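Q: Given only this backbone (368 positions), what sequence would you predict?
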């Protein structure tokens, strides 16, 4: 992986040099990990004029190779306690002869920005913007492999839960059990807080699990994700508990399923992000559910669970191959229930079989 990290840093350095900066300071944790590998909490990365540094508040742990930072990087430990690695990195840049430093202004606090200016007043601070985030959009096959394994873990955890008795158990209990199963099957942990919504709670988008117990005839809406070697995937499914689904449940489910399929089939290289959103949204809109729709149909995933690109009506730009995204339309009816179907896929050209579905748990409306 050292060669991969080095190549990523070279691409960022070229971007910064084109903007007139001889050095760059990366502080956003996901970006540090992308460029340097798994780093200690609080570490920052300095791309210096002559040498790159991983600046840490303490020495990296003695961990296995896959969970250690790039060993070709020089590690600088901030002396004492309470020192700011970002400020120390700026000092290293100035000492190394840099006259300008590109920083992630969207991540720096005002306090930290002021500290940088006060410690190295002669260093011109520029904005690197979202350059690293843009580099992260297209994944290499190693990254996609991590997402694929995470999806397999999430599928396995969900499948095992569906084989158990659900009636009478609380949303909170089910969510905790799912997260435990993720870890049992090899995940670093959940990719985000697991959502379990039953009955009328399924009509609330973004519902957090409560002590409500599962009842016969409920919609059960579950959304979970696994983190594997830092990469995060997502899956969401909706089921009916105990009895044959009611007519209104079948109708609503079939509608969301049709919308989700339309979104998935639109995932081709070169497709406009907003067109993918439109493909799924118009199915639900034409059925009269415009007011119950989410603000976006999907988003990118990777080292964070919500990355670019955003599949929303106002998003500009087009999809590239090897970009993993979610497609997750839903309709939520307050006080009654709702349906959400959520998959993680990788954009692939038609010659390679079209979009690669990573989350494969059945999308059939099961009565559990």
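A: Predicted residues:
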């Amino acid at each position: 992986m050292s060669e991969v990290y080095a190549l990523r840093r070279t691409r960022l350095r070229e971007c910064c040099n084109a903007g007139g900066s001889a050095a760059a300071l990366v502080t956003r944790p996901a970006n540090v990990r992308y460029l340097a590998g798994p780093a200690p909490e609080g570490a920052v990365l300095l791309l210096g004029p002559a040498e790159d540094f991983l600046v840490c508040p303490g020495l990296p742990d003695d961990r296995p190779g896959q969970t250690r930072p790039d060993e070709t990087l020089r590690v600088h430990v901030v002396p004492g306690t309470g020192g700011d690695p970002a400020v120390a990195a700026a000092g290293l840049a100035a000492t190394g002869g840099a006259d300008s430093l590109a920083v992630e202004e969207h991540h720096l606090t005002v306090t930290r920005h002021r500290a940088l200016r006060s410690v190295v007043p002669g260093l011109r601070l520029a904005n690197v913007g979202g350059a690293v985030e843009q580099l992260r959009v297209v994944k290499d096959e190693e990254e996609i492999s991590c997402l694929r394994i995470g999806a397999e873990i999430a599928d396995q955890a969900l499948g095992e839960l569906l084989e158990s008795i659900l009636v009478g158990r609380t949303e909170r209990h089910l969510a905790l059990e799912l997260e435990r199963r993720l870890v049992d099957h090899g995940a670093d942990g959940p990719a985000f807080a697991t959502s379990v919504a039953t009955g009328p709670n399924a009509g609330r988008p973004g519902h957090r699990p409560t002590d409500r117990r599962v009842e016969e005839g409920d919609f059960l809406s579950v959304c979970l994700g696994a983190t594997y070697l830092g990469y995060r995937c997502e899956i969401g499914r909706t089921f009916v508990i105990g009895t044959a689904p009611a007519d209104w449940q079948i109708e609503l489910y079939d509608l969301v399923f049709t919308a989700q399929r339309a979104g998935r089939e639109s995932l081709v290289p070169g497709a406009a992000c907003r067109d993918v959103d439109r493909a799924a949204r118009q199915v639900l809109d034409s059925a009269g559910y415009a007011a119950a729709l989410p603000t976006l149909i999907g988003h990118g995933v990777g080292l964070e669970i919500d990355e670019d690109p955003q599949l929303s009506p106002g998003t500009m730009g087009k999809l590239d191959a090897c970009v993993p995204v979610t497609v997750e339309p839903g309709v939520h009816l307050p006080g009654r229930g709702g349906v959400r179907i959520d998959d993680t896929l990788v954009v692939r050209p038609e010659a390679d079989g079209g979009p690669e579905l990573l989350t494969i748990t059945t999308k059939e409306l099961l009565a559990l």
